[in-house]
Write a structure and sequence with these properties.
The protein is 61% helix and 9% strand. With 1536 residues, the protein is α/β, with parallel strands linked by helices. The strands form 6 sheets. A 6-stranded mixed sheet has the order 6-9-10-4-11-12, sandwiched between helices. The protein has a 6-stranded mixed sheet with strand order 18-21-22-15-23-24. The longest helix has 51 residues.
Length: 1536
Amino acid sequence: MGYSSLPWWLATTACSPPDASPPGRLAFLFLSPCPQRALLAALDLLFLLAALALSLRARFYRRPTTGSLDLNHHAREREPLLAKPTTTDDQAALPRHGKSFRHGLALAASAVHAAASFVLLVLALLLLRGRAPWFAAECAFLAAHAVAHLAAAGVVAAEKKAARDVHPVHLRLFWLGTGAFAALFSGCAAARYAAGEPVLPDDPLAFAWLVLSLPLLYFSVTGSTGLGDTAATGASDDHAAAAEETYATASWISLATFGWINPLIAKGSRATLAADDVPLVAPADTAEVAYALFVSNWPAPAPGSKAKRPVLTALLRSFWPQFLLTAVLGLAHLSVMYVGPSLVDRFVKFVRRGGEVTEGLQLVAVLLVGKAAETLASHHYDFQGQKLGMHIHAALLSAVYRKSLRLSTGARRAHGAGAIVNYMEVDAEEVANVAHQLHDLWLMPLQIAVALALLYTHLGPAVLTAVAAIAVVTVVVAFANKLNLEYQFKFLGKRDERMKAITELLNYIRVIKLQAWEETFGAKIRKLREEELGWLAKSMYFMCANTVVLWSGPLAMTVLVFGTCVLTGVELDAGKVFTATAFFHMLDGPMQSFPEAIAAVTQATVSLGRLDRYLLDAELDDLAVERVDDSSIGDVVVVVHDGVFAWDVRGKMDSPEGEGEDEEDDNCDNGDSEEEEKDVEGTPVLETVLKGINMEVRRGELVAVVGTVGSGKSSLLSCILGEMEKVSGTVRVCGSTAYVAQTAWIQNGTIQENILFGQQMHAERYKEVIRSCCLEKDLEMMEFGDQTEIGERGINLSGGQKQRIQLARAVYQNCDIYLLDDIFSAVDAHTGSIIFKECLRGTLKGKTIILVTHQVDFLHNVNNIFVMRDGMIAQSGKYDELLEAGSDFATLVAAHDSSMELVEQSQQVERTEHPQPAAIVKIPSRRSRSIGKGEKVVVAPHIDAATSKIIQEEERESGQVSWRVYKLYLTEAWGWWGVVFMLAFAVVWQCSDMASDYWLSYQTSGGIPFNPSLFIGVYVAIAGFSMVLEVIKTLIETILGLQTAQIFFKKMFDSILHAPMSFFDTTPSGRILSRASSDQTTIDVVLAFFVGLTISMYVSVLSNIIVTCQVAWPSVIAVIPLLLLNIWYRNRYLATSRELTRLEGVTSAPVIDHFSETVLGATTIRCFKKEEEFFQENLDRINSSLRMNFHNYAANEWLGFRLELIGTLLLSITAFLMITLPSNFIKKEFVGMSLSYGLSLNSLVYFAISTSCMLENEMVAVERVNQFSTLPSEVAWEIEDNLPSPNWPTHGDIDIKDLKVRYRPNTPLILKGINLSISGGEKIGVVGRTGSGKSTLIQALFRLVEPAEGKMIIDGIDICTLGLHDLRSRFGIIPQEPVLFEGTIRNNIDPIGQYSDAEIWQALERCQLKEVVVSKPEKLDAPVADSGENWSVGQRQLLCLGRVILKHTQILFMDEATASVDSQTDATIQKITRQEFSSCTIISIAHRIPTVMDCDRVLVLDAGLVKEFDAPSRLIEQHSLFGEMVQEYANRSSGL
């Protein structure tokens, strides 16, 4: 035999080994052709034996033996006799076509293997007899192989009958072994081909066999048959769920390998995950435990001072054991991370000089164990860190919520709902995230020190120059971060402002649409967004500079260190050079995370400061009111003695007198963030509102509180509730209290849930409450009765319905004392009388009631009356006593009596009972309309799509984020050119990076003379070029990202602004806000960074694989299956992670929604003592969000752990091939480079895949924002072809023909065919029971709701042909709920800014507010707090009147405009409107009969139809529905 360049064991075809060393025998056993075939034949035989044994066992157990339990038999016994018909769901559960195809492919692959082996066996018998030395072995091997694969095909075929989920274990192991041997055969064949000594025809066939084995390898790893995935029965699902492993029940091996999350990932890869599929977190990880721990460790302040940094102290005391655990894991990771780089030099030397195989195998084993240990430590370090962050987040969210239930009114205003939401959404998250990054501050210096110490042993003192580079990089980055933090702070401040403005816009969108102010408010928000983006851009450019400096760090280090080596004469070889580069690349991570950690810690410090201020702010004083739970003690149940009470009026625009409660004025400079913080922190600024209050209320009394607008009536109730700051005096309340606020607070939920308010259902009591609060007819008219879901803030109810539902809630609670704030304001006279009789005097008989009211009629029937004036009780006593005494009360009664004169006159007419004319429709009395009696109201027929839910489930996409979303994001700003630029720069930059390593390899190979100056000169040039490219690349990515973010915001905001009112009725504001805040921030900050990073990562992975395989090319055989495994793991993980990320979004919004709702209803919640229930609801919502977060973290680490292990395996195989393959296979000069690249390939593949997964998860933000960028739009604001004349409408004639209106396509008609004709200048009063369609008629005229049928013609123009702004801006309206915006008097009365100061003062004088505004030091710039909280409801209504006076339109709508004012102010408003709008058409909805008595005509609506329409005097003459209402109103005082 001639000379062979191959080792003997690779070239020999013998079947028995010659005398050789143990390593030689081992190599012969695994790498020689004959033993290889014997091993494979052994595997085939093992499989055949296993298959035979299992089939015999199955056959034996199938025969039922006496006494044995036949589970199937029992299962059959439980089956129904008649099979259940297959439902659509069941059909969906049957194996899909794609699944059965998978099973067919597995069957085909096995059959092809069997057939190929038979064909080869026949050919061998015919052609090779006597020719091949191992002919017998070959034939035996082929025979065994054919039979084994035939048996495998049989096993696969049998699976279909049994509908098995997964292939049996013995079959999967057989396929895995077959694939592994195929790879081994191919590798050896490739080696022989390379040496020019192939074994024919075996070696070419080996490659074909590898290709055939790949499907089997895939099926063995995935295990799924594709048959029973979803066809499993419910019972087996339940059984599986019960047995499913969770984090709390997992074994230590499962915990170490993250195997406990396998069931969830398997479930997610098979079907779209639902929230219920995600297991609960372990009891120790719940929000309850985290909060309890946090509270128990809250530091007690020293007497007379506030605690210093209480949040940080409490967090450290609570979570130090977990913090310590992550530190230990960080150290463990550090101890093994440098094993790989330390071995590079030894590998290079080993390959250069050759050596014993055992020594080489030892090196490979050390590498494998070291890298595996590093993988284990790093992923558990990350996971435990994230878990710690999750606990901190849960504790802070709970604490912020809990505080909101205790916050004093002034403190709540000072912070503002928007800022408190930010404490929950932003600050709590900042602090939680930093918990993990904190370790980087001490780990990074330690990692650098260890790396330099190890490098010192290779390169000597020259290494110390790297310290200079590290120092420069760290200082530059730290300095840049300090500057950047300022920009970050400004950016966050502007984002808060923008969110506050958007929140206000959403809260008052109805009013804004009615007044056609969208452009004004939109412009304000766009301006804030521009400023926000300006700061963000500055911050992002700094981050770019940081990235460039950090990336250049390792390059600068190599230049410095190698330069120093050349100057000091240190000999450089490939081993030293690539050991150094491997170490420098390892330092890349720590150097990057160190400045990030500094930035995060600084940011978290700011957030901690904000949380400290908030959690230490003033709370309500529990001792301000002495509460006695036992109401039977004594006769007097409410006592206020010498009481002086004040409101805390802290705010952004504190005047010297301490007035104003506005949190933030638009004109003030928000640049000074410190000042901003200081203002919120400020001590309470008290403004005395109630003085010298002395009052006693006895048990069972009904007392009334009356007075003019702004006299302090509602404040009196607040002081009894303990909501005000008590300056002096005593308050004592005996018994439980119930409170009904003037502005209704309704929760998003069903009507029944709102009334029960957490109490048990008692049917009789519930029916009684519904009856006494006059809700029966409303519930009859609603398609789903009390199961109708109420929209956010009761948006789909009329004002009267909201008021009666919250009254019913209070009555159902069965308390001792009832505080009712103006409950009759929003209901009509008839309903008011019934409520007074049936509820206050009926259901609540014997209860103590304090009633704030403007209804003078009821005052005859109360035990005592308190008259308020200027914050004092001016008079008190019974009705007649007060009337005799004169003064304030007499004035109020006189105003009421004058308004009743018309009614009194009408009564005289009515007594001469006219016969009822046929034209008038007789309506049965309301009593006959109770459920099951009298005439039923005809409701529109059910519509198929109808649903009781008004708030629809949040839409969430499922499955893969579509390529359309990626395309949308990438091409939004620059089209496809942006993608081309990013790709091109990434490729060129990667090439320049590799060029430097090739240059190092080439120069240190020893094959050419070494020229130091040339070596360093070229290296520096390449490095410089790389840096320039990196700068350009990051700049392009950043600019592109920012422009794209702005386009997305603009599209979404415009879409929301143009959305119809029905969208806001059915979409909770939290859902819109989460897109405008967190999703938009993701697009602003995260995606801009991740897209470029992902592209760069994948280019790097590709180049690394090329370099690694080029040096030791047989390793490509290992690359292909491992790459397939990587992709399989990625897809399996991504399906689950993507849904978990979506579910995270869907479960985090309800936390904020619930919080916003709580802030608005805090007074009601406290009064009913429901804090615990609401807090528990908050904890439940946080837990539901935590579930998704926790399992998402675990899924990330599950993927990372597996991918890094695969990378480690690939590196070990490459290293193994380097030491075992013949020298002519490997270019020795490239061994160092190959290993250096291989070491980074491990983590690079993981980072590339996890970055792309993260990108896909973050792309969900684009998907969510895009959902709201394409909302159906309402009609155009202006229609160019159909512009009305500038002074339209000139007369104010209104014709309505057969108008039918429904709110949404899937709801019944509200207006069922209205026909009206109104002449210009007429004053029309609209009356009707609550819910009869009065407000809907106005909404239809403003086209907030588009008519289903019919026409509305004003001055000859069909208003449905006009643009919405052209229509709405020509009408004046005083809405049902007076709305003021945060800002000043000036921008509230004239938001568009089109009138002069003189005109504004004139309007204020006419609406009787001039004196109040003149008394304020700031005059027109006097502050208005959020929601106008620092103005009484009456004053707000007058200000809304001022708006329409200023606008002066030809048609004026008044939607219960005087509901919240006393008779005196009502008369004033009526007088003003008569004077100011004498020639205008006025349509006035009113509940007070005197308000409409002087109208030209009265329109009576009932159940969406016109019942009567005539002059009031004429309607009273006839026996009419209106006549009944007048009679009722006039009689109600005496009748009660």
